[in-house]
Design brief:
Elements: E1 3-7, E2 10-14, E3 38-44, E4 55-60, E5 66-67, E6 72-76, E7 81-87, E8 91-92, E9 97-101, E10 117-122, E11 128-134, E12 146-150, E13 156-160, E14 180-184, H1 189-205, E15 210-214, H2 216-219, H3 224-237, E16 240-246, E17 257-258, E18 263-264, H4 266-283, E19 287-291, H5 310-326, E20 333-338, H6 345-348, H7 352-355, E21 361-364, H8 376-393, E22 396-402, H9 413-424, E23 430-434
Parallel strand pairs: 14-15, 14-23, 15-16, 16-19, 19-20, 20-21, 21-22, 22-23
Antiparallel strand pairs: 1-2, 3-4, 3-12, 4-9, 5-8, 6-7, 6-10, 10-11, 12-13, 17-18
Length: 449
């Protein structure tokens, strides 16, 4: 007979026989030696999000090939008690993994992370190969999160805000990426995801490993569907997406200091922390990028006490974002955009060496064309200035450069590559291009290897 699972007005037909409890008991089941080493390795339980599939990754952690034939996946939750939701088959070589998903119907129902459930890999006759229990109060999943074994295939279970579907479970490691990034607006996503992500593939092929994506990509309702398409493509390509957050600006400058009370505006810092955590939890970004982490040229007007002053306001926001990111223990990276002038704390409240105590990557906007009109020597000396001060604070500096001239005409690949080469001659550890869709980006695979 058929069994229906009802959630609200939604009914899902389970194409499996029988509605009676028929799964193995994870507390009583035997382990058959022929299944030794087969483990549930990653679970993306996304039934509550209709735009996302539920999938389960099984891995062979043994040193011998293992047959999956005869095994199934069994779910116990508020609707089912031991219902089989997948028949497993095939052979896994040592270290090989296989994904069962609602997308291809190898998994016949989704699983919700918003409620307790137990997933068992075993047989109808109480043989248990492995199991996972999601308890009441355990954290639910954001769009791209999953429950993973860390270390891969052998460690304890934990929620990770980004998944590693079909790949080794491991936390993000900045050192394994190229120090090359691009600033992009939310409006750029339609071009980036077109033709199965052709432009993203081109960026990756040319050596750009990081995308700083403006907050509007995540917050504007019309942009969210595109972000849901873009992030999986980036993950598959190995492009790290960072949420580009505007700290002290919301269409106009927002001072973090109350001049009347001569005190910090706590709501400003809370909003920055909350936004950073939300982008990580919900969207699985690998980094938080702070833009407008400064005063608009008026920092000197807000210095009242040894504690309440513009420099401390900037440093506090940097520190609290770093603490927010570190609390996830997932390798989340912090970065910040800085104005390009040296010794300009009086106007902006930015002291690079102090910010670098909390920010992994300083990204000074060394825009040589237009109002600054920098010579080659000034261009390079500014890059060295920030790199030296970043190092003094324990961070690094990736020089931000323009991809267009004083007339907002995009630079040719040859001219942009010349500017990039000048930065590569400095103490900067990488480059960031502003911006996508302006200029022709050159290949940079040969730099900072």
């Amino acid at each position: 007979m058929n069994c229906f699972k009802t959630i609200g007005s939604f009914a899902l037909l389970l194409a499996v026989a029988g509605c009676n409890p028929n799964g193995p008991d994870p507390g009583k089941g035997k382990i058959d030696p022929k299944y030794q080493g087969l483990v549930l390795n990653e679970i993306a339980a996304h039934e509550e999000n209709q735009d996302f599939d539920t999938w389960v990754e099984v891995c062979n952690a043994s040193d011998q090939s293992r047959d999956l034939d005869g095994l199934g996946l069994f779910i116990t939750d508020e609707y089912f008690k031991g219902q089989k939701i997948a028949d497993l088959s095939g052979t896994l070589a040592p270290g090989e993994r296989k994904v069962f998903s609602t997308a291809d119907e190898t998994l016949v129902t989704g699983i919700s992370s918003a409620a307790p459930f137990t997933l068992v890999m075993g047989t109808d006759k109480d043989t248990v190969a492995d199991s996972y229990e999601h308890k009441d109060g355990d954290p639910s999943l954001g769009y791209f999160a999953s429950y993973q074994r860390l270390p891969d295939a052998s460690g304890e279970w934990r929620r990770v805000t980004y998944s590693s579907k079909g790949k080794v479970n491991e936390l993000f490691d900045l050192s394994k990426t190229k120090p090359t990034a691009v600033w992009a607006w939310g409006s750029h996503m339609s071009d980036l995801v077109a033709n199965d992500g052709a432009k993203l593939k081109e960026l990756k092929a040319k050596g750009y490993d990081h995308l700083l994506l403006n907050y509007s990509a995540f917050d504007y309702p019309t942009n969210k569907p595109l972000a849901k398409r873009l992030i999986p493509i980036c993950d598959e390509l190995g492009i790290s997406v960072h949420a580009w957050l505007q700290a002290f600006y919301d269409g106009d400058w927002v001072s973090p200091i109350d001049d009347e009370k001569k005190a910090f505006k706590e709501e400003i810092f809370e909003r920055i922390r909350t936004d950073a955590a939300r982008y990580i939890e919900q969207w699985g970004v690998k980094g938080i990028h702070l833009d407008y982490i400064r005063f608009g040229g008026t920092a000197y007007k807000h210095n009242y006490t040894q504690e309440v002053n513009s420099i401390n306001a900037v440093n506090r926001a940097c520190r609290e974002v770093r603490e927010t990111c570190d609390a996830f223990e997932e390798g989340i990276v912090t970065s910040a955009a800085l104005m390009p002038e040296a010794n300009s704390s009086e106007y902006y409240g930015q002291v690079p060496s102090q910010m670098a105590k909390y920010i992994h990557i300083l990204m000074p906007m060394i825009y040589r064309y237009g109002s600054y009109n920098m010579s080659d020597n000034t261009f390079k000396s500014n890059s060295n200035y920030f790199a030296e001060r970043a190092a003094a604070g324990g961070g690094v500096s990736w020089s931000g450069i323009q991809t267009y001239d004083a007339n907002t005409k995009g630079l040719s690949a040859e001219k942009l590559r010349r500017d990039i080469d000048l930065m590569a001659e400095t103490k900067a550890s990488g480059i960031v291009l502003f911006r996508y869709q302006l200029g022709t980006f050159p290949d940079v695979n040969d730099l900072w290897n």
